[in-house]
Amino acid sequence: MASLIISAEGHLLIFVDNKASANGFLMAAVIFGILSFVCCPACYKLSTERIVLEENKGSNAKLGHTIKGLLKNKPLISILGASLIFMISTMLIGSVNVFLFKDYFTNTAALSIVGIIQTVAVFIAIPLVKPLVNKFGKKETTSIGMLLAAAVYILLFFLPNISTTQYIALSAIGMFGYAFFNTMIWAFVTDVIDYHEFLTGLREDGTVYSFYSFARKVGQAIAGGIGGFAITAIGYNSAREVQTGGTLEGIYTLATIVPGAIYLLIFFILVFLYPLTKQRMKQLTIDLIEQRKLQK
Questions:
Q1: Which of 122, 192, 207, 290 could tie 76 with a disulfide, CB 3.0–4.6 Å?
Q2: Domain residues for 39?
């Protein structure tokens, strides 16, 4: 719901007559800052821990052993790579879309529609996740979603003369495709934690999760400026009222073929590098049960 509010209302605040407004940016920053300040303490105050863990009376885990296990954890490394690449694409699209609709389509109001559709696509995907995962598995379902997203954005690259409405309609299908990855990425981590236990004999949920989360934060920080670098590289000049034809083509390329190629790369990572298929997870569950029995 927060994403829907920000996506739908944010662009209406910061753009006036298809031009960025300094006062609009300030107003948006103040409003979202206040909302953040209110919501973060509320999340803490309104949360209740209901799970009481047993005290671990065994030997403490050794850092070296843990790091060795993390580096040997092929599912962790591959899903982390896919996640970082996906974040780069998300940030790139978020940045480039502003220029795409402002300069290429000259219709910044459409940004709100795109934001709404992106959130709605997730809402549509969410109830489909469980039945699809139960039938096909996490890896399999997500791979097909990424392939669909890649196909849509690559197709858009070859349709440069379509209208704003046609572009949004087609990209909505791509958004629906990658919504499955965006929804299930944290569920992949639980499988990776199980695999870590199988490798090391230690159940280190917090350590593996923290490693994954920290790596994402670092990647997010590095990827934060990628949109700006990309826009500068294609010759965008903010002083110009109308951008050159080459720059406009560059904007369209950044918004279509680049994410399309990234989604295709993620598809290949999931298919060829991430080993935890539905069948492998079933076997891993059995292996862990046997391993735990031997440890008692």
A1: 192
A2: 1-49
